[in-house]
Design goal:
Layout lengths: L6 H4 L9 H14 L23 E2 L2 H8 L22 H13 L3 E3 L2 E3 L16 H7 L3 E2 L6 E2 L2 H13 L18 E5 L2 E5 L18 H17 L3 E5 L6 H10 L3 E6 L3 H13 L3 E4 L19 E5 L3 H7 L2 E6 L9 H7 E11 L2 H4 L4 H8 L9 H19 L2 E10 L4 E9 L1 H8 L2 E7 L5 E3 L18 H4 L5 E8 L6 H13 L5 H13 L16 E4 L2 E4 L8 E4 L5 H15 L8 E2 L8 E2 L3 H10 L4 E3 L6 E4 L3 H10 L2 E2 L33 E2 L11 E2 L4 H7 L1
Parallel strand pairs: 8-9, 8-12, 9-11, 10-11, 12-13
Antiparallel strand pairs: 1-3, 2-3, 4-5, 6-7, 13-15, 14-15, 16-17, 16-18, 19-20, 20-21, 22-25, 23-26, 24-25, 27-28
Helix pairs in contact: 3-4, 7-8, 7-17, 10-11, 11-14, 14-15, 17-18
Keywords: Isopeptide bond, Metal-binding, Methyltransferase, Nucleus, Phosphoprotein, RNA-binding, S-adenosyl-L-methionine, Transferase, tRNA processing, tRNA-binding, Ubl conjugation, Zinc, Zinc-finger
Catalytic activity: guanosine(27) in tRNA(Tyr) + 2 S-adenosyl-L-methionine = N(2)-dimethylguanosine(27) in tRNA(Tyr) + 2 S-adenosyl-L-homocysteine + 2 H(+)
Main location: nucleus
Amino acid sequence: DGVVVSEEVKSHNLDVEIPESEFEAEEKGAEEEHTREPDSNILDVSSDYPRGKHISIQRYLADLEKLADLREDERKPCPLCPEEKFKACYSHKLHRHLQNLHWKVSVEFEGYRMCICHLACRPVKPNLVGDQTLSKMGAHYHCIICSATIVRRTDMIGHINRHVNKGESESRFATVRAPKSSCEVVKESATDVQVLPNHSTPQKTDSYFNPKMKVNRQLIFCALAVLAGERKPIECLDAFGATGIMGLQWAKHLRSSVKVTINDCNENSVTMIKENCHLNKMKVKLNIKEEDNDETVGNGEENSDTIEVTKMDANVIMHLRSFDFIHLDPFGTSVNYLDSAFRNVRNLGIVSLTSTDISSLYAKAQHVALRHYGCNIVRTEYYKELAARTVIAAVTRAAARCNKGIEVLLAVALEHFVLVVVRVLRGPTPADDSAKKVRYLIHCQWCEERVFQKEVNMVEENPYQQLPCDCHGSMPGKTAVLLGPLWSGALFNTGFLRRMLLEAVQYGLDEAQPLLKTLVCEAECTTLKHFSTHSPSDENKQEECGVYIKTPNTSAESYLVHGKRKSEEVLRGAAKRQRAEHSAEHPPFYYNIHRHSIKGMNMPKLNKFLNYLSEAGYRVSRTHFDPMGVRTNAPLAQFKTVLMKYSTPTYVGAQAEGPVHLPGEIQVGEEVPAATEIKVEEAELEEDDKSGVAATVFTQSYPTHCAAH
């Protein structure tokens, strides 16, 4: 009188209690039938997932009735209830029982129904005895994804939703090694990669692929292409391969200039990387310890179309081998891999890292930033640049521990990531110079003025004196906070960015070109209308950490002259000439024009405001960190003065008291009749060649104009 289980259930080793007398016979039968082809209603199960779906999980009610083997002339027990709860009965009564008790209260997920089960799958507490207690406590649901048993239906729905949020949206018996037919092929930059259906969730998938990081991958490719132009061949490492998309793009476009190594510690990811290499007609050079039937290469044409795939921990491979270019893109923070990255990286090599722990870097989880980066930060108007300087400070300290210094080539902070690219300078002197640029920042919480703390060893009596504002004297209490330690040096190298832009144009990377143009303008602290694709004609040389790069105006190619053996006097002289030619490095941080707008006044257009600041004698540029941000060396008081001068009142009656404009700029026209609407159209007419008088009709809807910028 045990539970009746059909042949389909036996062949898949289902979780059903079977009497001991029948267990051995069924076990042998299961081994024999395991080699047969599975039934169409039950999916195949690999060795990684030895158990199939429970009998309470079915697609249709008819499948559930098949388990009962309904016959009109015989009594049959319910396959989901013990004999004590539901005795054997005829087919019409058993059909109503299955439909009303099990099927109607089921939980649906991806075409399957998880019916309620009354079998002794779930242990009952020992102090509760009796048939009534057993019937109450024994009812449960079997999760289709994991092996959990849930009592309440609402809890089961919440349990399934948590699986979906984690990316486990496939059934436990269906997400074995995904067949090739279920893999999606994604194409990016002439490179094809296979990804799993849940590729967008990094916590659980083995092939994480984020299409939103395309700009990130293009920037890293441009940096590698610039390095490949300096010396060939270079050994580069993608420490966290996932699908291998980044390493494949390197090898496919740069060819013999690079020796690509793609690493990942996950076995399924390594298998996926190898398949993607063959998909892109690339040969796979296996790790020395691995012995497989994949293609191996000889010593002849090893660099042209060959990618080395390794399965190691990222720290291990960076400790064992030396590389010219290392890219770190872990899930979350990358501080755990910085020490090993700088241990064996070659001199004048490049280390790039992508940090995606933006909740801590953008000051939403300040305690996590203190734990990971040892840095105290708060939410400010310049929080994205604060995040970039926080990461660079951690990079600087890790490099200094290995007696290496850094020069920041590129720092980008966008919505989803923070990208930092640095060049490595070997030696204690560069390490000391870089470590001195890690300083604390004094930030006023009233007006958001900020200044880096002076490099002094003695304790200063009144650190508020370093701030340009007088909030401490006019406001009660403590008005400023100490943030950091942060990187206080430059965030960009103009010469390197220009060569990256040339590489982006050469390889047709359209998404990265506008961002690189903005970065070049930001590095030079100039507006986009003064942007030129060539270096200044008077001085074509760009100095990067003792390495001189000459970029001719007539050619996109650049060559490198190593300056390692040159004397320090020559280096200092070249640095002085460059400073005289390109002025000082870009000012730190930026101001948000909306944050400092005057109440009751309409701001000017952003590009016009940049011109006003430039005419006032200040260096000014836009910034990629904030679309409404202004990077300038003007103090906040002067910034607000210029903003106030060129703002217009929101109400019409006060336009007679409008701002005084500089000669040659727009002038206030006739008064617009008062109306209930605040918006007034603004259209600027070109200057008349004969009279030299400009006429304008004003509007006041500045959010529309700001969005246009």
